[in-house]
What does this fold into?
Amino acid sequence: MPHVTFIHGIANKPPADDLLAIWRRTLAEAAEPLPLGDLGVTSSLVYWADLMYEMPDMDLAAHEGVLENTPQAIDAGGGAELPVAANERERKFIAAMRARLTSMSDAEIDAAAASHAPAPAGTGGAGALERVPLPWFLKKPLMSVLLRDVHHYLFDIEFGPPGKAPVRIQQRIRKRFVEALAAPGITGPHVVVSHSMGTVIAYDCLKRVAACPKVDGLITIGSPLGLDEIQDQMQPGWSRDDGFPKERVSDRWFNLFDRLDPVCGFDPSLENDYRRGGQRAVLDQAVGNTGAWRHSASKYLRQPGFVQALRSLLKV
Amino acid sequence: MGVDLDALRERTEQAIARVRGAGSQAELGQARELVLELRNARLYPELLRLAEAISRREPGNARNRRLYAQALIEQGCVTVAIDVLKPLASRLPRTDPEQAEAAGLLGRAYKQIFFDAGDKTADAAREALKQAIAIYRKPFEKDAANTWHGVNLLALLARARRLGLRVAPELEPARVAKDVIARLEAVAPEARDEWHLPTLAEASLGLNDWSAVEAALKGYVADEKAQAFMIASTLRQFTQVWDIEAVDERGRALADILRARLLQVSGGQIELTPKSLQRARAQGEPPAGQLEAVLGQLGSKTWKWWKIGLDRAASVCSVRTKVGDRMGTGWLVRAGSLNLAPADGLLVVTNFHVVNAQGAHNGITPESAEVVFEAADANKTYAIQEIVWSSPPDRHDCTVLRLAEPVAGIQPLPLGKALPLVDATAHVYLIGHPGGRDLAFSMQDNALLDHEGPPNGKPAIEGVCRVHYRAPTEGGSSGSPVFNAALWEVIALHHSGGKLGMPRLNGQEGTYAANEGIWVQSIVAAMAAG
It folds into this structure.
């Protein structure tokens, strides 16, 4: 029977069961409803927020994709510190990613965040975050969370939040992903739905981890996989001409993005960067989320384009 | 999830046995509390038996007598309830809270007599209305904190004025409404009980202040944890007492919004006459902002879902004898959905035990049967041309009928490909013509209990996949379609149940109260296999 494996993105999240319930409910309540339970579609969630954060976020309402008034509501909860580079390679990566997000200095960001003044909409700065019409006291923690979570995964940092033993982040998350895909009882069609940093993890595993099981379809939403900095870290394995994870994805790969989603940055389209045998294979689709915060998973899940893509992969 | 009705019924049986026997005082005390639980679960037949047993041991127990009387009203024995309540209200001291409760219930009994009356201007109806007003008036005038009595007084006065009945001419409904609202607003927020908002909504109706009505409703109707009984109570009060659907478009739309929401919440159930179903289907989107005002951001989606459900109900037919006795329910399906030709032909599905070639199992033969799509045209009957396929009650309990003439203007029901996953939140909907209430469509939410389908099901009968679900009140009607919750696709053919003693599925020990249906795709597969 059809199965969906979800994987979440950056920042702290509600407990795994609650997050899965929120996403399932979001789909069931979409304008074009996709009630997975009614359709006999089982689902599971690859949860990794517990590796990065001390306690789950209990403000469940913040994750429904309606509010935009707290760090939690804009994927910035958890209180991460900016990562510290251990070597030149990491330093370059962090600097490049930071430059993608903003051209402001740390001091300018601190000053803007302290004033609590709303950032003017569409100021057209050099970074993706500058296009987001939210105040800097919200955007500053977002930047920290984004850079920290991405860095720790890609560089397999040994890390543990307060009260938890440190683990190698990439190895542990990869293990969870592989085990989730291999869970007993899953038949098909099996589709991976990934959001944000989860798209990087899903791609990394499906393309580069030999033990990873095969799936039928892949959907990425709000993905930073178009960024050169991320693609550089997907080597060996990734190449522009053969980036499609054909080894483990037998059906289609849909990629949904909002042009004002700062995590996709200025490279939201993936079809040119993840070709199959030199041919374009990823099905890019631009969508228009609402509000100031366009990266919200719930907003993507409500998109008719998403529902249609998932339905077609699940064949329901 | 709701109350475990099986467990409650079982505890009731045990309690009755103990109270009738040599039950201790402690056991008697437990039985008294159980009466309240039965009232809250609306298990009135069980309540009557237990309250009777307690009354024999404790004839002076006022609360027990009052709850006994309430159950009598709910069961339609209103005049008997009045005979119980009158002496109770007069013998209790005014300081006893049960006195006000008994008096209020007496008012409710008279109110019911008035609303049950076909001719509201008949002497008996007017007298009942007069009695009800007099009864509600006393406690409210004595202490305006009795807002429940006040709002009932208001509703009855307003109705009486609209009907042109001269009852309590010295009372001004708008004045009563303002008094009730003032009293409600004086209650500290932390001291407000669950009936605060419903009472406020109703009192605001008395001032024709629709915005205030909708704002109060939103507080409990749009809530994620909205309770079916609260919405049902408001709907009953608004439609039966206030008759808001007769007032204007906004009133009609509001009643439909409440119905839509009631059906959506766990344990919800609504009944519609064919005429009211037709009217609801024709009802356009509520006036701008009203949906959102009552239901918040989910309003538009709820409305859309409700309208699809109404359209599905129009495809449900009554299966009856040619002299008009209703035998069960059927529903229209496209032949292609059953892999039959011609694919665009329309067929009717019902139970074998409703129609079969021999008239066996208390069913009728196709020659003596006819079907009526009552929501489309209650006067149009369709004879049966032939039985296309059938499977006996111990297998699929299904008969597929071809009608003697084509059906026009009614859409066939879509079939779901899969069964819903069984989890604590899963539920399904039944639409059918329940027995005992003529010409009524019942749309009811059922908790999905178990099924023999994928991924974990183990069908006990090869090729037959059973589905179990439980209604909050009663079983469904034979032959009803069972729908998945969000999409209104048919997933099963209802064929039996609603009672205790249904063996559990998938090799599990024991029995429970459950409805049973057969997965439509196992029927489709059986048809394909010949």
